[in-house]
Amino acid sequence: MIAIREDDLSGEPTRDLLALHLRGMQANSPAESVFALDLSGLQQPGITVWTAWIGGDVAGVGAMKRLGDGTAEIKSMRTHPDHLRKGVGRAILLHIIDQARAEGITRLSLETGSGAAFDPALALYRHNGFANGSAFGDYTASDFNQFLHRDL
Prior knowledge:
Blueprint: E1 2-6, H1 12-28, H2 39-42, E2 47-54, E3 57-66, E4 71-79, H3 88-102, E5 107-112, H4 119-127, E6 131-133, E7 146-151
Parallel strand pairs: 4-5
Antiparallel strand pairs: 1-2, 2-3, 3-4, 5-7, 6-7
């Protein structure tokens, strides 16, 4: 069973998974296209982080950044390598969608990269109603990044 809970980012397992996420983004993206937030970025007002747990193990992480106009952005989605293909990413994504709806958010958006490293995440998002669209917020479109949106 996957348990999802709001995370204050103080625990070592969560911090380790977020560090792994950031390293993965840096390894698979051009330097100018890495928009993953570090720990201090995720601790800013308007951002909530959730972790998924299987037993005593952190199995995944995801965050929502409120953009202030009735929209929000999904940030820092990552499944721990030990828990791939167990439904962790889907569970976190659906939790974020539910939380956004409960807050009256009307649209969720995200920015991600291109290439094989991003294909599993893109499949997850598209399977759950996200579609490619234009850049949003402070992002600028490039040949590498892509933007997905879902109206709620």
